[in-house]
């Protein structure tokens, strides 16, 4: 079982099944929806997905007729997309999952629409924490932390 939730914790999700056709989508709609260079999405069976939302914070934006994006109205976290032409499937935003994912992405899609600053083949340094220029201890809500993110 996969479990996850939105940034503020108001919405929790559970998935009993597999994640199919995981892709990194670089289209302008996914970039705008995620606020990043691309969105990582996977298709799931609607019947195997459960949203736990006791305060009714899940809201919807219909960006094209019959195509909706579902997100937390408190923190703005994207949760999933639905398409009324295929109600058996949902497109889950994989960044909301807290569980390790066993399935792997199969492709980068719409790369001709990718952000001009995104270099898919970049040989950039990789760090376990912040880059060295931000490695100093920062003050967060009265306590010190090196793990905090902006």
Structural summary, described in words:
The protein is mainly beta. It has one helix at 28-34; strands at 2-5, 12-15, 20-25, 39-45, 49-52, 58-64, 67-72, 78-83, 89-93, 107-109, 138-140, 143-145. The protein has 1 helix and 12 strands.
- What is the makeup of the main sheet? 7 strands, mixed
What is the approximate shape?
globular
Radius of gyration: 17 Å
Helix content: under 10%
- Multimerization state: single chain
The percent range for strand residues is: 35-45%
Which class do the helix and strand fractions yield? mainly beta
SS element count, helices: 1
Q: Trace the largest sheet across and list its strands.
A: 6-7-8-9-4-3-10
Q: How much is the average pLDDT? A: 89
H/E element order:
EEEHEEEEEEEEE
Low-confidence region ranges = 139-148
For the termini, the CA-CA separation is 30 Å
> How many beta-strand segments?
12
